[in-house]
Amino acid sequence: MAAPDRNLIRPVSGATAFYVPTEGGFEATELTRGPWDEGSQHLGPPAALLGRELERAEARPEFEIARVTFEILGPVPIGQVEVSARVTRPGRTIELLEAELSAGARPAVRARAWRIRREKVALDEGSEAVAAPAGPDGTDPMIFALVENRPGWHRAMEFRSLQGGFDEIGPATVWMRMATPLLAGEEPSPLQRVVMAADGGNGISSPLPWDRYLFINTDLTVNLHRQPEGEWVCLDSHTRVEPHGTGLTVTRLFDGTREIGLATQTLVVRER
Asked: Quick one: which of 51, 57, 80, 143 has the most CB atoms within 10 Å?
């Protein structure tokens, strides 16, 4: 992917939210910074901002988003971004939505989502829920040795590890929650909380050392069979990479009581 336009990088100091509303869109603060490039955003904040826009597109309270895919068209610079969303396939039971985030008039992330109307269904016995892993209480905060000294997404989130983490190689099970709002004075929705965390799957479950390899995702798909409850989201993540330079991260998602869905990420794997 091409390097971000440095003229678009205008970090906001002393940030108290991921974004600040502006007349033409939103200004990304330094808390959106990702681990791969100091001038680019982690996908979590743009995904949450797009999720917010999708939820507001001809909003229908009896519907919920069951699947959303984010396609990363290039690095998202830390600066001014604009978002838009629309319903492209309306319906009484299901709807298809599309959204776009642009920076400097350049499309950076596109999203497509299925929105499904809720309806009570009598299920046969045996449709058992999968219980969540042990909760975050009593676990130690995660450490980010490689990027700990600079502001970014990792400093605006709270992490509790049951297994593995960003500075360890192998599968990981990590609880995450937003310690910072998406926008000041606005409570994040359940969808926003999930997609903000879900893009961390490849980072916490890398099978390769960070100082020797890049394993950047080209997309993020989140399928939800139930909307999460509470602030905490648990990622149970596994990553596989191949010697021809591709990889896949699969993440089971949980809230504080049970499984809520699945996230996947396609990876580009390269030596530094």
From this structure: 51
- Give phi and psi for 184, each to the nearest 5: -60, 135
CATH of the domain at 82: 2.40.160.210
Domain assignment present for 127: no
> Do the domain assignments include residue 255?
yes
27: left (phi over 0), alpha (psi -120 to 50) or beta: beta
Q: Which domain holds residue 169?
A: 6-119+134-271
Does the pLDDT value for residue 11 go beyond 50? no
Which residues fall within 8 angstroms of residue 129, CB to CB, at 6 or more apart? 257, 258, 259
Angle at 213 between CA 19 and CA 28, to 5 degrees: 5
Total domains in the chain come to 1
R_g (Cα) of the chain, nearest Å: 18
pTM above 0.70? Answer: yes
Please, are residues 33 and 40 in contact by the beta-carbon 8 Å criterion? yes
Q: Is residue 129 part of a domain?
A: no
Q: Per residue in 164-183, pLDDT tens?
A: 888 889 999 999 999 999 99
Q: Mark residue 14 as left, alpha or beta (left: phi above 0; alpha: psi -120 to 50; beta: remaining).
A: left
Mean of the per-residue pLDDT values of the chain: 89
Q: Answer whether residue 23 is part of any domain.
A: yes
